[in-house]
Design a protein that fits this description.
3 copies of one chain form a homotrimer. Chain A has helices at about 15-25, 40-50, 65-75, 85-95, 100-110, 130-150; strands spanning about 5-10, 30-35, 55-60, 80, 115-120, 155-160, 160-165. By secondary structure, chain A is an alpha/beta fold. In chain A, strands 3-2-4-5-1-6-7 form a 7-stranded mixed β-sheet, sandwiched between helices.
Chain lengths: ~170, ~170, ~170
Amino acid sequence: MGMSILITGGARSGKSRLAEGWATRDGAAIYIATCRARNSEMTDRIAEHRARRGPEWKTLEEPLDLVGALDGTDGQGARLVDCLTLWLANLMEDERDWQGSVEDLVRTLRRQTSPVILVTGEVGSGIVPASPLARDYRDALGLVNQSIADAADEVYLAVAGYPLKVKPNAFG
Amino acid sequence: MGMSILITGGARSGKSRLAEGWATRDGAAIYIATCRARNSEMTDRIAEHRARRGPEWKTLEEPLDLVGALDGTDGQGARLVDCLTLWLANLMEDERDWQGSVEDLVRTLRRQTSPVILVTGEVGSGIVPASPLARDYRDALGLVNQSIADAADEVYLAVAGYPLKVKPNAFG
Amino acid sequence: MGMSILITGGARSGKSRLAEGWATRDGAAIYIATCRARNSEMTDRIAEHRARRGPEWKTLEEPLDLVGALDGTDGQGARLVDCLTLWLANLMEDERDWQGSVEDLVRTLRRQTSPVILVTGEVGSGIVPASPLARDYRDALGLVNQSIADAADEVYLAVAGYPLKVKPNAFG
């Protein structure tokens, strides 16, 4: 069975950097990027992430079909999915069935034979957003994170670049 | 002495579900709901929470008087207060003395003989809100959480459905 | 070598109070305040913080030059820097080179012989802010926190008045 790890955290909490370190611990790794380069801020961030990753990485861009991306790369080393926040935003933007997609992803994770590290975000610890769309997204991401955490072997919360272990722990 | 537990976390972090599991560990439990069904979004969420809870639950709706609700049910099993975020919002909306109410609640918690589990929220880890009302609420909730945490035997932070133990720990 | 501790947390998570307790553990301490009293809300908060601190404190107001404040007080006991969130806001407001200032601060921290406790904030766990300025600040603070956490001997996350140990831990 391939180990799966979920790492969550706020913006700029160092979660991607931690995930990259873990993914390449045993050599080459595959980066599965979920973002759509929609604007220059995002293009810049993608370029920055790409520059930080070294030649040991193979990159795959997949904004929606994580099931296909994972099944298609199983057995080829660790996969890093960065990140579920954008994947969910893409699903909602395209009016896909995100709940069904999360269930499919959970089933897919459970049958992988190589490791998978998934990066997600925390967006629910501010004041309740005024916009209904933002509230829907916030609620949906919380549910996605719970479902993936339930399927994952380990869960971490990144704080200022350091990981707090959330699962497994003695109090679950 | 009745054990008291505070569980906090962001929106959709799984804190209510964790609290429900703990409250019914030893059998029947009393659910003390603080929300006012003000709009359809809230009515939906209440119905969803109610459907998830099984027949082992007795439900009590009490938007303001938690002291009365706790004293009136002491000795009847574990009580789950869900949640302090709405209780505080109700107090502020009705222009009650929320500081005094928190002090009363702390005293009440200390004299309970059956367990109490309280759910609250984290709203202070986003960007400073533009609205003074939102800033006031955010500050007030932070102070409520500190006061109740101080009185509680155990405090947990829910992350993606899993609890991180905050109190007691070795660094307090 | 002077021990350095970074404590982060949301608004009203009790981080300043925790930091004050640690700073005065071994007697007198120096409070390095970074805030500019810009409006009455801030003046109130400064007065409240000042009232809470006792006569064992010497206070220094330094909105920008933390390097000078730390070097100028080294050997005189523990220093509490409260807080990096306002220091960064001041640097950005004055259009200073905040990245360079953070590098200077890291170097300064590494050469201190008396303890330094630094308070910062978590602002990246809410919904993505609509304003580009707020997004820039949020990203910058996350990077500041990562850099200072990397230089610090210990890092804590304050939740409801209690500290969760983030560094050192077994999973870094």
